[in-house]
Amino acid sequence: MELQQYYTQNRYSEHMVNNLAIESPAHAFDLGLGNGGLLLATKRRWSKINLIGVDLDQENIYKAKLNSQIDAFEFDGFRPDLPEIINKKYGNIDLLVSNPPYFSCKLDTDIISILSEVGMMDCISKNCQSIPAELVFLAQNLRLLTEKGELGIILPAGLISGERWKGIREFLFSEYNVVKVIQLPTSSFKRTDAQAFILILTPKSTNSDLVLSHVDYSGEFKINLNDAIQRSDYIYYRHFSECRVNSKIIDDFSIFRGSLTHAKLKNDSSHYIHTSHLENYASELNLPKSPSSDGVNTMPGDIVIGRVGRRCLGRVALIKSGHVPVSDCIIIVRANSPSVRKQIWNKLKAENAKNTFYDLSLGVGAKYLTHNIVRNYIQFGS
Ligand SMILES: C[S@@+](CC[C@H](N)C(=O)[O-])C[C@H]1O[C@@H](n2cnc3c(N)ncnc32)[C@H](O)[C@@H]1O
Q1: Which residue has the higher pLDDT, 147 or 186?
Q2: Does the domain made of 10-236 have the CATH classification 3.40.50.150?
Q3: pTM (predicted TM-score)
Q4: For the chain, which residues make up each domain, given as ranges?
Q5: Which of these, 17, 26, 131, 231, could form a disulfide with 161 (CB 3.0-4.6 Å)?
Q6: What superfamily does domain 253-380 belong to in CATH?
Q7: DSSP run (H or E) holding 361
Q8: How far is the CA of 76 from the centre of ligand 1 (A)?
Q9: Residue of the CA atom closest to atom 11 of ligand 1
């Protein structure tokens, strides 16, 4: 089994603990305690707190026992009997802290029973064969959460802003009181550039707005439930917040994406446009007249944007002439008038556009842009 031992640096453990609202918790519990960093940070804030941690790695248990501040024992976090065991041994736990392992695991009967108990199975597609381990750890923590309890958990970008897990966000934001989502820098964990977030939640009380913040920036944003379900990453809202107030909205354009795969285009068409044809600078392209009958074709005046790929994401080109089929890795922006086209092209060819698209893109590793990101950038971006 993967252990994914990316430990939370002290700075981020402290940040999580300082953002918890609970007044004087009696017990803190960490599912996957690692080197105990999160638990020890709670002890620095509340000196009388009892620390409890479990881990699958015997070495971590051995080290925690040497330190003697943590009551640690070996336990597999995927076991459905976790709440019974913990509650029998320690009673109710009022503070839960966690930085789960991030990997994909098989959706087996144990995991189904864990997710079902909290109501998460309803948000998961019937065809799903595997599931992120962090969702299972989140569900286990929710099973342990008490009426007056609080949970601080570090989750990856997919759950906070990815399109695939919108249903989970809808569930979390409507069934619990998600108080804060705090964005961490991409360099937060050694040996990985995974983008992660601290999420702080309590049981449902009144409906309140969600507060977004970032460890490295001052200022917060309050967003409503609908926006939070779309995405809850601070950087996204920060980017558009000032521009929303100041900008004159450009809306006379359509956005769509190419429809044919690169493999099919390579096989069937002598002329087509794919991300690898886009230069690293904003370029203007004269293409042949070679449309395809079954795909989306370019029109003169179209602006094409690389939708995926580390190197090609956010590359742009203006089609000066020609009709060729477009690959599904490309987003097309078609303006309804020359003046709107000029405004859009000026924004998209700006020096900072590519970097901004990279910051706003979704996905870990395989980054991608959505129509919404591009639309918002055109309408409100700078
Ligand atoms: C990302 S690390 C976080 C450790 C620590 N909580 C921290 O914040 O630094 C995840 C931890 O979960 C442990 N782990 C992985 N799979 C586990 C499982 N099935 N049951 C219990 N612990 C597990 C790993 O050994 C590792 O210590």
Answers
A1: 147
A2: yes
A3: 0.82
A4: 10-236, 253-380
A5: 231
A6: DNA methylase specificity domains (3.90.220.20)
A7: none
A8: 10
A9: 32
